[in-house]
Amino acid sequence: MDNNYFEIIRAGINTTFQDKGRGNLYHIGIPFSGAMDTRNFFLSNKLVSNKIDSPVIEFAYQGPLLKFKGDKINVAVTGDVIFKLKKKNIEIYGNCYESYQLEHGDEIDILSTNKSVYGYMAISGDLDLKFQWGSCSINTNARIGSNEGKKLAIGQKINISKINLNQTKKKIDYLNSKVENIRVIKGTNFNYFSNEGKKTFFENEFTVSKLSDRMGVRLEGPKIENIADTNIKSEGLIKGVIQVPGDGNPIIMLSDHGTIGGYPKIGVVASVDYDRLVQITPGSKIKFKEIELSDAETLFKLYEMETQNLISQI
Q1: pLDDT digits (tens, 9 = 90+) for 74-123
Q2: Mean pLDDT of the chain
Q3: Is the whole-model pTM more than 0.85?
Q4: Which of 39, 44, 140, 239 has the greatest number of C-beta atoms within 10 Å?
Q5: Distance (Å, rounded) from C-alpha 277 to C-alpha 119?
Q6: Is 60 exposed, middle or buried (0-12, 13-18, 19+ CB in 10 A)?
Q7: Where are the domains of the chain?
Q8: Nearest to residue 184, comparing CAs of 198, 163, 197, 165?
Q9: How confident is the model at residue 2 (pLDDT cuts 50, 70, 90)?
Q10: CATH number of the domain at 182-311, please?
């Protein structure tokens, strides 16, 4: 069949196309974007025999309900996700980290994430998407990327330009681990905060606010005391940097963050903890732990090695 596509019956919450993101564009105000949870993004692609950085469907909390039209195709869902498949009027609940073959008329219903935020669905083939600055990743705040920079909507079609010939069933045993402490290194404005403020930051719990999205995580908790200035001349920001505005409540910048900001930066989340940080749901408690830059680098290298080992097992 020449025309292969998914019809969106229900779009879900914050459902977008994401890939590895955009590099080296901070100087023109464009953040990386890309999949929030890189490990789950890579694993989803590997399970359907795609290149590991191919575009996937990312969703938050509730995913889409999709109906497939076309030749046989494989799909895989990663994360901590509840979903089911409807094949010839028979419904079965699916398992994450396992590929499934869909035929013409079959449906996949991604019901919800389970005590987490983001999930991923990979499709075995090439999606017909517009690329911008080398990426199809959607940033809804900047309205850039595929789908005119907008979330996926009911009635749209996800067109597939080419289906992978390799449709071998694949699976891997993997359990998403939780973060007990978010490890951070000192930020460039660390000394803007009093000794008591630093102690507050590292010794107290903070609550993840409902006002959190792909741009940033807002935290609520004890006020972090600033002894210098609560506003500074705007400086460049990076993913994972922790700003403290005048109200004393930290904000962690995530994948769609603004590239400059004028709040003092008390720390930066170590890259090893980023994938798990983004999966922490609103209302959850988190705590910070200081580590040195050299330790952060070593931990991230080990995390990358572990990820590559998982990929090689599929």
Answers
A1: 999 999 999 999 998 899 999 999 999 999 999 999 999 999 999 999 99
A2: 96
A3: yes
A4: 44
A5: 14
A6: buried
A7: 4-163, 182-311
A8: 198
A9: low
A10: 2.40.100.10
